Predict the structure.
Amino acid sequence: MRTLLGREVNSTRVGDIEFVAWGVGARVFAAGARNAWGLGFARAMSSAGNSVCLFSDDMVLVQARGVDEGAVWRVEHVAASYAGANAPIRVAACSADGRVAVAGARGMAVSTGHGRWRLQRAARERIVEYTALAWSGSHVAAACVDHARNTARLEFWVGGRALDAPAASIDLDARAVVVSAHGSAVLVLSEHGMLSEYALAAGGAQVELRRAVNVAACGVDARCVRQVMWAPGACGDSEAAVVVVQGTQLRVVRDGRASTVGRAEHVSISSVNIGSMHSAVWWYDGMQVLAAPVSLDDFMSNDTRALDRGPSVHLPLDFYPLVIAADHGMVIGLDQDAVGTHAPMLRGTLFLPSLLSHMLHTSEPDALMYAASFEHRGFFAHAMEKLLHEALVNDMRLDRTVRMLAHFAQFDDIVVHCARKTEAAFWPQLFECVGGAARLFMRCLNNGRLRTAAQSLLILQTMEPPDVAAKCVVQLLARASRAKSVGLCTEVLRFVRATSVSDKEMHALYVRLK
């Protein structure tokens, strides 16, 4: 039994379906011999932070904690007075703190984040159609068409106040099809293909036009554009490059022409600002997440060659990605194969190992600084284990990887855990770079990492002569005994008993220990 945003699809009727077709909006119509159904699908909305936000005809789901344990979806039904007259929801946007703005046939509604909604006055709601929404800081940037005056406008509404009147607005030359926030600025793409950048002037009472680019003249069909943003670049003039998702193609507009990078369903840009690396452009091509790192030199020269060269990072996924959580080093999305649940299931995977592998190829100091920025995260050791495992198994920059990891306090833990999860055939190569299994064991013992030292016994038994391994066991038992760690002593003795050849060896061990 599958569910669509909480609505069960009766599995007994699936076999009766003879015809399926897309309907208006995000609906699928299915017909059988005697019945027909209209099935509503959840859609992802633009988010200003790391929240995963979905919306259907009359409700929104917000998950602000990513894949953290215990995280639950916040379900908000759009105010009945608004949804009854204006459903289905056509456009929606989510703020960094989880507030949502939605618009249907007419008017707009903004959630307070506590299950309550702010609505516009009835007079405005009847005549104004909102075509695109985006959060810019604490403001909702809303492109609309006033059907009473037959004019198009860009309005800025304060998200935490009553929707009596916009804080500022400016007339547009044509109906807007896409609105996106870009730092403190807002990009508006009109149906005629003019991309304009607006920002609130000092005081927030006026809107000023900063620059405009005619992307239609470069071959971009504005009617098919789903996302638009400036390419990373320090240049603030009209010659800046533009990144657009047109249909299912990622395109870059620059110098009066548009070039196609490849297939893309959605794109995002994350800031890095470490050493010579400025940022990264991420996109999903339907099979994997791809990334093109942008160097500081490319950024300062406003060069798009990072995209022209194609992706340097490839991250295959078995779920649908929605958010690049750059500060968590993670891609977050939905498990499209989850069944039997009334709430979508979130999945996440770390992109940190893949990006660090690329950085180790270009600049070891940059990779070290970038890895250090995640050292306080709980997933850091796991991510570094994955990085070391991939470098070892794929024989890619193992020496550089080990040199970088050696700077961190968790280095010995990472090596031991990685080795225990890897086939023993790779151990000689790994410990040749690390400096030997016995040396690693003694370092763990001297640093008080008795648990890690115990976990390395299996490696010692394989990599070192029997007398060396036996000596290490004695030293570990002596240290664990002095530390009064009864549990660890029991585990070590159980391991020795399971791996010893005879009772004679066990007796010899007890004698040496005394």
